[in-house]
Design goal:
Blueprint: E1 3-7, H1 11-23, E2 27-31, H2 34-43, E3 48-52, H3 60-69, E4 76-80, H4 85-93, E5 98-101, H5 106-120, E6 131-134, E7 137-140, E8 145-148, E9 151-152, H6 157-168, E10 173-175, H7 176-184, H8 192-206, E11 216-219, E12 223-226
Parallel strand pairs: 1-2, 1-3, 3-4, 4-5
Antiparallel strand pairs: 6-7, 7-8, 8-9, 10-12, 11-12
Helix pairs in contact: 2-3, 6-8
Amino acid sequence: MNRILIVEDETHMRMGLADNLEFEGYEIDQAEEGNEGLTKILENQYSLILLDVMLPNMSGFEICKTIRAKGISTPLILLTAKGEEIDKVRGLELGADDYITKPFSLRELLARVKAVLRRGEMSSPEKKSVMAKIGRLEVDFPSYNAFSEGCQVQMSHKEYEILKYLYEHKNRTVSRDDLLKNIWGYEERVTTRTVDNFILKLRQKIEEDHEHPQVILTVHGTGYKLLG
């Protein structure tokens, strides 16, 4: 059974999410402030984290940054009352896999939860490990591990998904719209700027010189091409 942690300080919101997710068959754990949420993440294994941005003691952004720095790659969806693009981009750049802006419908939340968990199933131990050589990296997509010169490279869940999609379509142009549709997996339009920010982060880890990319090329006016 998938286990989900909800970190949310608004009691009504937290309990409502817990009740509805339990009804869908998920096992739920809860935290009502930042420090408690971080402690639970560090001490337990979860399939998914629903994390409010505005929390007492420690913000969702701080929690996200901290756990990614520690190598915890558990899929994470940010819950935010802020609609500004800069906040959404910041969360994704810190390692969040998705975000949803309050107020949101239960149907939308469940769709995103299911999409993230479905992608997370790729990391199951039963999956066969196949190392892919991409630029400076050796990537094991099923286990969500990446290495450069024998050292592990920290990458977010979303970065793996984008890189995997490009690798599966290598030597072909992949449009930004294709990435938005197939990686984020829902109808709402995430901006193309978000895609470009993720590509920049991937280049910094893959390319010998990320300012002059030779592996992930830009196809101007369209999208990107992974050479292989």
